Amino acid sequence: MSQKINIKRQILLPIAAAGLLFTTASFQNDFFEIAKQIEIFTEMYKQLNMNYVDDTNPADLMDNAIEGMLEGLDPYTVYWTEQEVEKSKINRRGSYTGIGANVRTKEDKITIIEPWKDYPADKAGLKAGDDIIEIDGVKIKDYKENAGDLLKGSAGTELSITYTRQGKNKTTTLKREGVEVNAVPFYEMATPEIGYVVLSKFNEKASRETKAAIKELKEKGATKVILDLRGNPGGLLSEAVNVSNLFIPKGKLITSTQSVVSKYNRTYLTKRSEEFEGMKVAVLINGRSASASEIVSGSIQDYDRGVIIGARSFGKGLVQRPKPLSYGTQVKITISRYYTPSGRCIQALDYWNRDENGDAVRTKKEDYKAFKTVNSGRTVYDGGGVEPDINIESAVYSPITTALLKENSIFDYATEYYYKHQFNSMDEIQFTDADFQEFVSWIEKRGFEFETVTESAFAKAYQTAANEELDDDIKNSYEIMLENIKTAKKKEVVDKKAEIKSLLTDEIVKRYFYKEGLYNYQIKYNPEIRAAIEVLNDEGKYNRILK
To answer: Which PROSITE patterns does the protein's record reference (predicted)?
Structure first.
């Protein structure tokens, strides 16, 4: 026996040593390459700043270098300045000091997107669509840093702002306050037996607020619940696990992460007893439900714990972790991919295998892989995002709708609509087909441009023809083709009427009755919520979907 052990040692020790030598050599090679490239970069950076024909800005050169280095990776691996690091902390905590409004900052103005009820912006009379052009005497167009920082300050401090509304300049003064950003901004009884809970973000308060909301609704008689994750962009992975744990028993896998860096290969299990055992659940998702929202909806679907309703989610299956750098800055790095309990990867775009145009490749539907749910063995698919059990047309974000949102067409039309119509109650607001046709005419006059993938491909082909001096031969055919595409795009807007009308209605209702009014309106009229109520009230249908 002793001789066998010695023989094993004689064999294993050289193998282990070889493995250690290989690992060490590999590490040394990587370290040498990193050191070499840093040395080259440092020298080049110094030479440029000392010898370039015109004056250079060292900070700008470095920012451009950092952007170039990260550009070839994924859009979630980013460099954070000190201000962005602080903003990230605020998002996690869910509290800050300011004016209490969502804003959009541009070079020459700050647009109020949504004033929050009873906070300083609302008290001062600011409305969605107002453009702030001056803060405490500082013109936004002359301010070189992030103008949004001018709105921040200590609680109780005053600021004077000048803003534009419907072409007229106005001024007002307001006091900054502490602002609480709730993870659960709304919860209410949808029917005498069904509770409705909106979970809008996964900050540090997400699971605590979700649990408290459902418990309160249970006390009011709720035996079933609708969890609304539509538009929820995600947040803390730990909170996604904790929210899932409210409906899934202790010791169950919620998600796993995989990476080439072994320390990031982890499994995340539920740690507590299921809080709402036996309670029927419907989860609402759409194309803007991402990351942590997909962990929750994916785990509930994989354990056949509830019915998923709406439209395929965004498809962000990448996990990031911030790493500290010098002077209070950070780099947020994608460290792993996450997988649902059945083994599905939710990531939609492959940033590491791009097409000939340099764009990330999306998994084709015919390449989706089938998986089985844990409890009943239902077939579910990967391919990017969570596919609902019940698809609702109004929940979809098609390319044309996304383009309208990107161009702020939905937002700007709602602003004009607000100042042309007056309503005394939510029930008076019904965005009709006639209203929709008016919107279509409005975007045509506005000159709404939306380049389809087809147009882009034809434009590149035509440019190639021009380079080869063949454009004269095909010019007429090309122009006819563009006109046909233009006609098809107009038809596309009409074809996507359901989803566009839904977004317009939501934006308009919010203008009159704030976010709280919007949720109350949706409980009555929203197609996704109505579908959730229907399936929760139909025990046979609910069980057929899950079993």
So the answer is: PDZ
Say whether 302 is catalytic: yes
Does residue 490 carry a catalytic annotation? Answer: no
pLDDT, tens digit only, all 547 positions of the chain: 444 434 333 433 333 444 444 444 454 567 788 888 889 989 999 999 999 889 889 888 988 888 888 988 999 999 998 888 888 887 788 778 899 999 999 889 999 999 999 999 999 999 999 999 999 999 999 988 788 888 888 899 999 999 999 999 999 999 999 988 899 999 999 999 999 999 999 999 999 999 999 999 999 999 999 999 999 999 999 999 999 999 999 999 999 999 999 999 999 999 999 999 999 999 999 999 999 999 999 999 999 999 999 999 999 999 999 999 988 999 999 999 999 999 999 899 888 887 777 778 888 888 899 999 999 999 999 988 999 999 999 999 888 898 899 889 999 999 999 999 999 899 999 999 999 999 999 998 887 766 555 556 666 665 666 666 666 667 677 667 666 666 666 778 888 999 999 999 999 999 999 999 999 999 999 999 999 999 999 999 999 999 8
DSSP string, 459-500: HHHHHHHHHTT-HHHHHHHHHHHHHHHHHHHHHHHHHTHHHH
| CA torsion through residues 421, 422, 426, 428, sign | negative
* Of 316, 496, 510, 515, catalytic: 316
Catalytic residue among 289, 291, 299, 313: 291
Catalytic residue among 122, 302, 382, 506: 302
Q: Where are the beta strands (DSSP E) in 92-223?
A: 95-98, 101-105, 110-115, 131-135, 138-139, 158-165, 168-175, 177-180, 186-189, 194-198
| Nearby residues of 369 by Cβ (< 8 Å), 6 or more positions away | 344, 381, 382, 383
Q: 316 an active-site residue? A: yes
Provide the whole-model pTM: 0.85
